[in-house]
Amino acid sequence: MRKLLNAILACMLAAVAIVSPAIVPPSNAEAAASQPYTWRNVVTGAGGGFVPGIIFNASEPNLIYARTDIGGAYRWNPADSSWVPLLDFVGWDDWGKLGVDALATDPVDPNRVYAAVGMYTNEWDPNNGYIMRSTDRGNTWQETQLPFKVGGNMPGRSIGERLTIDPNNNSILFFGARSGNGLWKSTDYGITWTKVSSFPNPGTYVQDPSNSYQSDIVGLAWITFDPRTGTPGNATQTIYVGVADKGTSIYRSTDGGATWSAVPGQPTGYLPHHGVLSANGNLYISYSDGVGPYDGTKGDVWKFDTATGVWTNVSPVPSSSSDNYYGYGGLAVDAQHPDTLMVASLNSWWPDAIIFRSTDGGATWTRIWDWARYPNRTFRYTQDISAAPWLDLEAQYDARSPEVSPKLGWMIGDLEIDPFNSNRMMYGTGATIYGTNNLTDWDTGGKINISVMAKGLEEMAVADLISPPAGAPLLSAVFDVSGFRHTDITVAPDKILANPNSTASIDYAELKPSYIARVGKADYESNTRAKSISISSDGGATWSNPSAEPNGTKGGGMIAVAADGSSLVWSTPDVGVFYSKSGGKSWSASSGVPANAEIAADRVNKNKFYAVSAGKFYVSNDGGATFAQTAATGLPSEGGLNFKAMPGNEGDIWLAGGSGAAGVYGLWHSTDSGASFAKLANVQEADVVGFGKAAPGKTYMALYVSAKIDNVRGIYRSDDAGVTWVRINDDLHQYGVTNSAITGDPRIYGRVYLGTNGRGIIYGDPSE
After folding, report:
1. Is 295 labeled as catalytic in the residue annotation?
2. pLDDT score recorded for residue 625
3. What burial letters (b/e) apply to 629-650, b meaning 16+ CB within 10 Å?
4. Pick the catalytic residue: 69, 88, 216, 719?
5. What CATH number does the domain located at 462-766 have?
6. Using one digit for the tens of pLDDT, what is the confidence trace for 559-606?
7. Which is the catalytic residue, given 480, 507, 719, 745?
8. What CATH number labels 45-452?
9. Is 480 a catalytic residue?
10. 708-720 pLDDT tens trace
């Protein structure tokens, strides 16, 4: 949930920016040049975020896609068992396209793939949704804008799939919309769409009517064709649709979608997450009382015999049992063995997720783990996280607890069996994709080998980045999984930066770079002694929580570390700005600085800290105890801000941010500790700024910004203190809204690290 909330905040800031009028640079400004760069992901090996959908092509082996809620879509590369990102071209103005609410791969022409994209259905995303279509497996795309929004990061995003291709006539597609917009159809390969006016129920379920984010109608959940009711080139006649409605939820058409009626005898009281039709005519449906991915406490699995019309409750653990506390989510049927099916608990947080398997059409089931004598369990699996060792999440369970590390997962909203290989299964979790290649050993008393299958899929929302001048080259602050210390950016780290397990801000002492502090959100509910601040004295290798934190804080905010580590300043989002000169053992309120101010430390003078709020700049000369407003004017009073002090030069400050809606947006520079700022005329908009090693023959560090220059949004570098700029990304490498974090590497000229809101940490190096 933390990733979700912080991602929303980032998107809200982005939404302000992208509707801004352009600020025209002076007519004599020199146009920005460009330089080829090679862009790659900093490797975490696991993804780090929620994977709500995995889609196998039904006619071509090894053609597999994965969709994410905020990080775009991926295609499986069987050559090295990795995932290839397909939507990195999505830019600043259309960032919502990185939210993929549904994906369909064509069973007739495997080169065709479609995606329903859009991030939010409320005001956070200003754009309507799109159906994107590709005829080359996602290498290039065309798109059709819909007359409504699509919610790839909304409640119920792991139900599905709500976008489906007719398996007999692949020019026909159906899409089930959110927000009460009903069922839509295309007959020209997704180019144009019309509403199916005869469909009777657009859905009624909302997750929480009192909450802005959760109060929208979830809408249609999934669409399933019965391919036996059509012939090649002719439309399939029987189609089933599941609707997010706790009353009547399953509908059927027997005339190709012209007319619809509710399927008689269907169960009520729960929401249909997935509907999978077996080759022998049984429609299996997983139900839960919540739409997911975070909720769900009861549910059932039902089988509908399409030949006889008989419904049978085949739940591994029926909802009537007190042992059912999770509902059901991911559901799969083996295409080669139609009586073999699997289903996953949607939200069995304790002691772990549960996966069930049946080889007799749901008559009997076995579990991936069973209870022995409490607290002991027996297991039908082994688990290998060597590709991403940090997936143990630094768990330390009581020896008397039945919990184990690593967990099988959580939020398992999708689970799939390879239609060409009964031994391969994949499932998505809140942190990665897991899978196995010996699934049928389950049926003969053996153990299946579960391993990470997320190579190349990087899907974190990044809050902050630092690249100290010594020690590990990169440390990251990441929502949900805290962050990482990368000693090698091409290798997955062994562990996360634990306690707290979500990090909002990180900083180091410039003159003592082994001293690092970070702040995040502690789990106060589970541990009343938890702390939202953590400190390392060995460059991030180990961390400890100081004995105190500002009274009343709930964590989050920003941390700034004095140049020599002698002071800490923490701007909390709830109780104001505080400082500590005891390494966090005690805290006092700073005076003269507004609550929620953005803060930074001077990189030379150990006593000097800076703050900015509402267009006013502040400086402290006593380690953060007192601040005084400077005479600086012309700074942004609205929109996101990011500012940093330049290493090696006392009082040298760069500030990016603002909002076109307020008319003040760009990049500012101060050389007098914030007493005055000069706005760079050649930068129209800027959102984050960072520093890296100076260019050969230069002494001033290279500048990096995510900015608009010459009316082009991009990532830029300046080797001459902002006099001229070079665009270093290109139109194929944009990564949506890049307003969270940027830093150069102080040891490698030209290298830049970029934080994204869904595509993890990206780094770039000059290609020439």
Report:
1. no
2. 98
3. ebebeebbebbbbbbbbbbbee
4. 69
5. 2.130.10.10
6. 999 999 999 999 999 999 999 999 999 999 999 999 999 999 999 999
7. 480
8. 2.130.10.10
9. yes
10. 999 999 999 999 9
